[in-house]
Design a protein that fits this description.
With 298 residues, the chain is of the alpha/beta class. Helix content is 40%, strand content 16%. The structure holds NADPH dihydro-nicotinamide-adenine-dinucleotide phosphate. NADPH dihydro-nicotinamide-adenine-dinucleotide phosphate binds at residues 143, 166-169, 171-173, 190-194, 197, 210-213, 231-234, 271-272, 275.
Length: 298
Amino acid sequence: MSTADIIDGKAFAEGLRARVTKAVATLSAKHGTAPGLAVVLVGEDPASQVYVRNKNKQTAEAGMASFEHKLPTETSQSDLLDLIAQLNTDETVDGILVQLPLPDQIDDQAVLDAIAPEKDVDGFHVINTGKLATGGDSLVPCTPLGCLLMLRDRLGDLSGKRAIVVGRSNIVGKPMAALLLRESCTVTIAHSRTVDLPEECRRADIVVAAVGRPEMVKGDWIKPGATVIDVGINRIPAPERGEGKHRLVGDVEFASASQVAGAITPVPGGVGPMTIACLLRNTVEAACRRRGWELPEM
Ligand code: NDP
């Protein structure tokens, strides 16, 4: 029996998408044109294909223009950079997203840094990461933004809370830590070299796990009443569901952690759905900034 409140990311994301859809309708009525998102996929990675399909579908459902660019696996870096340059100057495109990972012949960061910072709805451009780190106004990476919105909704003011972010990747861990610092949390960033991770976690009022290791964070690592945000998406064998079947689990051992935490996100249905909702939100924000429109409430 679970004692923690379950943070319903699916419902939260639906609410955010409804607000974005309303904002898009308001902007379209006022300015005669809707924000547009271009999504670029290079190669055939099956998970990326699913993500891109969902992104395009939800962009269109929100009333925005959706531009899909699918390039073959053998695309050269210079051809990809040419496409980015074209999208940078396309007036109908407000947001550009390049789906990661890119094939080996392409330098991810060189491509991300070629995106015009004002169209960088993933928030990965060095200008935007720099602004986030130095307290400037920037487009913020979607997954950490989704985590932050759920934390604020649950806890209100985060100021003074002890937070630990387990994982220091550029797409989740580091921007998450920067956002929590911006909220005046006392932030610990843990990683594979952290000594005594369980003890570090036990001190935290907020635990964000972004590690990519199935159920690594155990219930007895969690401070009673803490809020736990599980970013991990891990596919593990599930023979109990039949031969060759799999299931998704997070980086947190939900069964034990939900006995101790005050609130916890499930996997699936927690952080995952928030990522695309935040992408849509970022696209509206990017459109308003670039076009000088007033940003509607979202
Ligand atoms: P990365 O592999 O880029 O980073 C993993 C981080 O975890 C690294 O900083 C690594 O440390 C740290 N780590 C690895 N092993 C340990 C350990 N034993 N103890 C402590 N820290 C450890 O992963 P991502 O940040 O890209 O993704 C993390 C998870 O989030 C994955 O499961 C991914 O699928 C999921 N994800 C979910 C999204 C969503 O929409 N919900 C979006 C993006 C990611 P070090 O730096 O020292 O190597």
